Structure formats: structure tokens, C-alpha cells
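Exam prep: given the inputs below (a chain plus fe (ii) ion), describe the expected output before reading on.
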Amino acid sequence: MTLELYRDRNHCCLMFSDLIEENGHAVQANQFLIIDEDAGALIDPGGNLAFNELFMAVSRHFPPRQLSYLIASHADPDIIGSLDRWMSSTAAPLVISRVWERFAPHFTKVGKSDNRVIGVPDSGGRLPLGRNDLLLLPAHFLHSEGNFHFYDPVSRILFTGDLGVSMVTGAQAGQPVTDLKAHIPQMEGFHRRYMVANKILRLWARMARQLDIDMLVPQHGAPIQGQEAIDDFFAWVESLMCGIDLFDEQVYQIPSARIDPISRQMRPALRAVANGV
Ligand SMILES: [Fe+2]
Ligand SMILES: [Fe+2]
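Solution:
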């Protein structure tokens, strides 16, 4: 499904939400195309699972060879696992945090990314696209150490990468959420484990509140739309304990359970079973 997040005569933002097979084992993921006049940028193009379908879907709207940028919020496999193929199919540079600048070439064949990586400093910046700029906003530790969110001032969309993610199907991801309360159960487990610390969530919310936002659009699951739902999201993350807030010495123990490679399940240690523990 291609969801048109925004369109006017000169500018559009498209979201592709169901390019990965639903019954597979890979997490649902969204990819994004922003077009401003005759310039285009692909945001978080994804892994190899999505490449063929995404290439065809993008081609219906914009010639991939004319893309100005491949933009990556961070360096996870579901973000740039397909980098080698995009570097082969386009002439676009990769825009990514400096933290990952010298790691990204591990996704490509030798030399393919040479002189084609724009390393963004921790402070972020404004990236020209057509007649407008995309804001690359610091979002480090949400969840990745070197991480950016992307604000498009024309559509007033904030692309939030792995923040605001919900675990839903591709079809559900195409339905923007306006009632945050009912949506929290789809987000909570992910954010508690994948976000690093409440301190970072509060710093991010303080920054994001300064923007005029119509929609928060995550890289997995459904967009969050409308002032009320967005305000509720800010309030929710500010009060959320996550990551290192929740990890204590209980987690950092020498393990005793065994991994059964046949069933792929954990088994209690034999001694523990014998002792009835
Ligand atoms: Fe990630
Ligand atoms: Fe992700």
C-alpha cells in the first residue's frame, strides 16, 4: 500500500507500508519518498526484503536514478540492509550520522560507497531538497547511538524512525492514529526495551514541542496525527521508563538456561530442574 501522507503541486510525501511479506518473520517496516519539485529523497529504504518492491513502487512516482539522497535515520538492517543495491541502482549519496559513516560501507561491495557518504554531526543540520530544506534533528539514543529524525516543514511531518513505533500489520500501518490512549498497548513493549532512557525522551520532547507538527510518522506501524494525539504522545514518552531505567543487576547474571538449537527455545538448566528450581 502506498499512503499519500501529503501532496501539493510541488511537494509530496509517500509512505510504503506493506512491501515485506506479512507471514514472514521480519518486522513490518515503512519506507518513505519525499519529492520536492524535481528533487527526491528516499528515507530509511530498508533491508533486502523490501528492495525489489520498493524500487518498483518508487519508480511509479520518481525516477530512482535521479534521487538526490538516500537518508538513513540510523544503521540498523531494517534501515539500510539494502544499501548495496540502492548504491548500485542510483547515484545518490547516503546521508547518515557520523557515528555510522565508516560502518555503513560494510553493507556494500568494496569501494561502492567511496565518496558517497554524507556524515552528519551530532548537532544535525538542514539538508537542501528541491526548493526546501529537510531538518535533520538530533535523536540520538532513540534508540541508536547516532540517530536522526527528519522534519519536513512543507508537510509538517516529523519522521521519527524507531520512536513512536507500533507493532501492527502493513495494512494497519496505513491507518493514521488519532486516539493515542487506545494505541499505547501497541507501542509500550517496544519502547520499554528499545529506547535507552527516560532522560533522552524528555530532552527529545522538549525539542520536538518547538516544531509545528501535523503528523509523527514512525518507521514501523501507524502514523500519529493531530494536535491532541501528538501532545498525548509527548506526555506519554516523558513519563515512560525504559532501557537503562529498567535494567538492574538482575539482568546481568551469568546465565544457566540452555538454548535448544532444534526447538530454538530456552530450556532451564538440568541442575535447576533436578533441584526443582
Ligand atoms: Fe532500529
Ligand atoms: Fe526499525
